[in-house]
Write a structure and sequence with these properties.
The protein is α/β, with parallel strands linked by helices. The protein has nine helices and ten strands. It binds adenosine-5'-triphosphate.
């Protein structure tokens, strides 16, 4: 799915959280967004998902304004934080519900869950513990598994590697790469860890004060370019 941002602004009082004159993310791109705390990354994701209204401008998904249409929702999934979960359900109940909402039949649901087994962990699926009582990492796994279960054309994730152990990080990286390749999916994610971003993303957007100040294409020099950028910021502050 193609994402186009046109003169997109989101202001909170005096703070300009997002200010992007023009940006296109092509269908099938795997894009990482980095930037310091408060740079506007989460707000950008929320604007794309129509979770907050822009102050000005538009977000178009495959040419359709997200504020005016709803068809894109059936082809999009996201996990931004644990408010996406339902605290009083078990992981199994929550995932079953997500499968039903997205209209997956029983066989498809089971097959997709099976494909996620290494990441999700069968014990997590079998537990009668409510989502609210899981560890932060296991809540993150359930939320990410739900987003992947849908096999969306657009997948939007906010700090997906946060809270995950190293094994789960590796499995998630592999699952995201596979999903992009098999579905030609567009994947947009944020991270504070440059090595994770450089290892996964083919294009990296750097945000600062709501603006995109760098648009880096993956390559041998991407890590150095990003490290130099963040080192420069720490000297300046
Ligand atoms: N609901 C809100 N009300 C007021 N200000 C907000 C709100 N949401 C975000 N902001 C402000 O917008 C700016 C961008 O915040 P945002 O959460 O998008 O940054 P971020 O890059 O995701 O930060 P972090 O890396 O710390 O998660 C910040 O100054 C923040 O305080």
């Amino acid at each position: 799915m193609e994402i186009r941002l046109i003169r997109l602004k989101k202001r909170y009082g005096e703070t300009m959280a997002v200010d992007i004159p023009e940006l296109t993310i092509r269908s099938g791109e795997l894009v990482g967004v980095v930037g310091r705390n408060g740079a506007g990354k989460t707000t950008l994701l929320r604007l794309i998902l129509d979770l907050v209204a822009p102050t000005e401008g538009q977000v178009l998904l495959d040419g359709q304004d997200v504020r005016q249409t709803a068809a894109w929702k059936q082809q999009t999934s996201a996990y931004l934080d644990d408010s996406f979960l339902i605290p009083f359900l078990t992981p199994d109940e929550y995932l079953t519900l997500v499968g039903q909402v997205y209209g997956l039949d029983e066989n498809t649901y089971r097959a997709r869950l099976e494909a996620l087994a290494s990441f999700l962990d069968p014990a997590l699926l079998a537990t009668r513990t409510y989502v609210r009582d899981l560890s932060a990492g296991n809540r993150q796994r359930v939320g990410l598994a739900a987003a992947l279960l849908v096999q969306p054309r657009l997948l939007v994730l906010d700090e997906p590697f946060a809270h995950l152990d190293p094994t789960a990080c590796q499995q998630l990286t592999r699952l995201l790469q596979l999903h992009q390749q098999q579905r030609h999916a567009t994947i947009l994610f944020t991270s504070h860890h440059l090595n994770e971003v450089v290892g996964l993303a083919q294009r990296i957007l750097v945000m600062q004060d709501g603006r995109i100040v760098r648009d880096v294409t993956e390559g041998a020099s991407a890590q150095q370019e990003l490290e130099a950028y963040f080192a420069g910021l720490s000297k300046a502050s």
